[in-house]
Specification:
By secondary structure, the protein is of the alpha/beta class. It has 2 domains: 18-121, Rhodanese-like domain (Oxidized Rhodanese, domain 1); 135-226, Glutaredoxin (3-Layer(aba) Sandwich), CATH 3.40.30. 43% of the residues lie in helices and 20% in strands. The protein contains 10 helices and 9 strands. The strands form 2 sheets. Strands 1-5-4-2-3 form a 5-stranded parallel β-sheet. Strands 7-6-8-9 form a 4-stranded mixed β-sheet, covered by helices on one side. Strand 6, helix 8 (160-175) and strand 7 form a beta-alpha-beta unit. The N and C termini lie far apart (63 Å). Pfam families: Rhodanese, Thioredoxin. Keywords: Disulfide bond, Electron transport, Redox-active center, Transport. One of its GO terms (molecular function) is protein-disulfide reductase activity.
């Protein structure tokens, strides 16, 4: 009986802690995130991406606290747990994990940017930047000039679904070369195109025919389903 009571107590404690953690976190869209930032005095804004990603672009006065670094917990412990903290990453995966950790550490109000920097940029919130990063639009348009269909795959090294898709897409580049040109572009190294095409998630597959987009898929897709569109 004592054992059963102990198990019930631990289960209730776990449920209670989980509820408190979920209550502390609010995953909100770009508009709400921007409004909260604007109306919060001295907001604690954390960019949880890598220093390399942060160096390319970041939101306002955000501080870079790399979620993947072993020093993450040590760094965030420097912040005021009683005041709102804002977190974001590239597409939302790392910031969601970071938000969970912050809640576990006792932060009471956490705003997580849904869709991360990609949604932020696609919504037109990014600061104007005339610097071309990666392939320019003119080069991309030249790439699309083909008597075959052109499939463009935008991916990132840190993106789990991208890694899962990479082996069969690379295989398809050779297998289907007579039917379709398959081009893979690192989204982090081709920011100009990502913004021009208003990409707000990864991985992305865009299929072109005669220079015009005829199909687009955002997120993971199986090899079998992908081939149906080609």
């Amino acid at each position: 009986m004592k054992k059963i009571i102990s198990i019930l107590f631990i289960s209730l404690l776990f449920i209670s802690c989980k509820g408190q953690t979920e209550k502390a976190i609010q995953t909100i869209d770009v508009k709400a995130f921007a409004q909260k930032l604007q109306t919060t005095k001295n907001p604690q804004l954390l960019d949880v991406r890598t220093p390399q990603e942060y160096a390319v672009e970041h939101i306002g006065d955000a501080t870079n606290v790399n979620w993947n670094a072993t020093s993450f917990v040590l760094e965030v412990e420097k912040y005021d747990k009683t005041k709102p903290v804002f977190v974001y990453c590239k597409v939302g995966g790392r910031s969601a994990q970071a938000a969970d950790k912050l809640a576990q550490l006792g932060f009471t109000t956490i705003y997580n940017l849904d869709g991360g920097m990609m949604k932020w940029n696609a919504s037109g919130m990014a600061q104007p930047n005339n610097k071309i990063i990666g392939m320019c639009n003119q080069e991309f348009n030249e790439l699309l000039k083909s008597n075959k269909k052109v499939m463009v795959n935008f991916y990132a090294e840190w993106c789990a679904p991208c890694k899962k898709m990479s082996p069969y897409i690379i295989k398809m580049q050779d297998e289907m070369k007579d039917k379709v040109n398959i081009v893979r572009l690192d989204a982090d190294k081709n920011k100009t195109l990502v913004e021009a095409l208003k990409l707000d998630g990864l991985p992305v597959i865009i299929l072109y025919e005669n220079g015009k987009e005829i199909w687009r898929n955002i997120g993971y897709i199986t090899e079998e389903d992908l081939k149906k569109h080609l």
